[in-house]
Amino acid sequence: MKMADFVFKLSQYIKEKKLGFFSFDKSFKELTTVKVGGKIRLLFMPFTIENFIEFYDFYWKNGHSMPLVVIGNGSNILASDNDFEGIVVSFKELQVKYYRLGEEFYFFPQCKMPYIANVMIGLGYREIEYFGGVPGTIGGTVAMNASYLSKSIGDFVSEVVVITKDNTIKKYEANQLKFSYRTSSIKENSDIVLLVKLHFPKGDSELTKKNYLKLLEFRKNKQPLNALSAGCAFKNPKEVRAWEVIKELGYCGKKIGGAKVSEKHCNFIINTGDAKASDLYEILKSIQRDAKIKKNIELENEWILINFD
Ligand SMILES: Cc1cc2nc3c(=O)[nH]c(=O)nc-3n(C[C@H](O)[C@H](O)[C@H](O)COP(=O)(O)OP(=O)(O)OC[C@H]3O[C@@H](n4cnc5c(N)ncnc54)[C@H](O)[C@@H]3O)c2cc1C
Fold first, then answer.
1. Do 115 and 55 lie in a common domain?
2. What percent of the chain has pLDDT over 90?
3. How many domains does the chain have?
4. Is the dihedral of CA 24, 307, 6, 161 positive or negative?
5. Whose CA is nearest to atom 10 of ligand 1?
6. Residue with CA at minimum distance from ligand 1 atom 43
7. What is the CATH number of the domain that holds 279?
8. pLDDT tens digits for 9-55?
9. pLDDT confidence of residue 3
10. How far is the CA of 109 from the centre of ligand 1 (A)?
11. Considering 186, 221, 256, which residue would you say is the last residue of a domain?
């Protein structure tokens, strides 16, 4: 089936079944925190998880001939300036955020980390404050196993329900998810997170709130939070911090087009306002090349690159 026909068929299905919103003219610029990137052939925003499962089944049974990616808050993504000939799914129109069964908490994938922090701290749980400044959704945060200071989200996950690339719904216990530095089996297998069960220890709400504010302040002093970015560009190599390598290579403050290496935190490559994805990508590649040639250090991307060759 031709791509245009496939997209038409999918969109008609969404419309007839009232599965959610869809659009043909959104771009990654509108869906990512760094605000760059090309147009998206089909953006689908289901109203419920059931709606998404129904859509995915239809997509799958009709040949799944176009790439499909899920986007959370787009806070770790650099998408190229080229048009993306694929489908992007965003869960941000899901209405139900979480449900609680006694002391068990199940969050839907669109919930942002500051929201979860506020809910859980309000209910007297602690350690979630470490993630309250991570500007991602729980779906993306679990897939990336995001961390802050000494805490990784994987340590607080009990179970995750996913839909796999081959259209099977599976429930995984935390020990099956292979959490390690900025990755998980979810990311490696391109599973799609539908529901996350989290657990946190009980604590003193007032103390936790104080700690939360302290951590936010600490983050504000260390990271360029007022600038457009996709978070840290590189993972930290084993022996050294990525920002130190970038600094020693003389890149802090360096500009290409509208992209700039932040002076506040040199592992952040920011959009100063009118950057193209290609500007950010050029800096990324240039740092990587110099780190290899001048220091024999492999800097691995932390950013998820979409639609680059
Ligand atoms: C200012 C700033 C500060 C940051 N600070 C931190 C930090 O302290 N620690 C840290 O680890 N990261 C940090 N990040 C990076 C980023 O916020 C985290 O990686 C975040 O958890 C990503 O979540 P997201 O919803 O934005 O995911 P996205 O950026 O939308 O996606 C990231 C990846 O997750 C996948 N994904 C998204 N949703 C799902 C889903 N439902 N199921 C399966 N896969 C999914 C995407 O396909 C993609 O591969 C920061 C970013 C910014 C801009």
1. no
2. 97
3. 3
4. negative
5. 146
6. 192
7. 3.90.78.10
8. 999 999 999 999 999 989 999 999 999 999 999 999 999 999 999 99
9. 87
10. 12
11. 221
**260 and 215 assigned to the same domain:** no
Question: Strands, DSSP E only, in the chain?
Answer: 20-23, 40-46, 68-71, 77-79, 84-90, 98-101, 104-107, 147-148, 151-152, 157-163, 169-173, 192-198, 255-256, 259-261, 269-271, 304-306
> What are all long-range contacts of 273-279, with beta carbons under 8 Å and residues at least 24 apart?
273/228, 275/34, 275/36, 275/228, 276/36, 276/81, 277/28, 277/36, 277/37, 277/38, 277/78, 277/79, 277/80, 277/81, 278/80, 278/81
Ligand 1 atom closest to 153 (CA)? 11
Task: Indicate if ligand 1 lies below 6 Å from the C-beta of 146.
Answer: yes
* Gap from CA of 230 to ligand 1 centroid (Å): 8
61 and 125 co-located in one domain? no
Distance between CA atoms of residues 71 and 142, nearest Å: 13
**Per-residue pLDDT for 69 more than 80?**
yes
Q: How remote is the CA of residue 100 from the centroid of ligand 1, in Å? A: 24
Least Cα distance to 110 among 128, 132, 137 occurs for 137
Q: Do residue 215 and residue 231 come from a single domain?
A: no
Q: Is 34 in the pocket of ligand 1 (CB under 6 A)?
A: no
Residue owning the nearest CA to atom 14 of ligand 1: 231
Domain interval for residue 281 = 225-306
Number of Cβ atoms within 10 Å of the Cβ of 98? 18
**In a shared domain, residues 126 and 194:** yes
Centre of ligand 1 from the C-alpha of residue 137, in Å:
7
CA 74 to ligand 1 centroid distance, Å: 6
Atom from ligand 1 closest to the CA of residue 110: 41
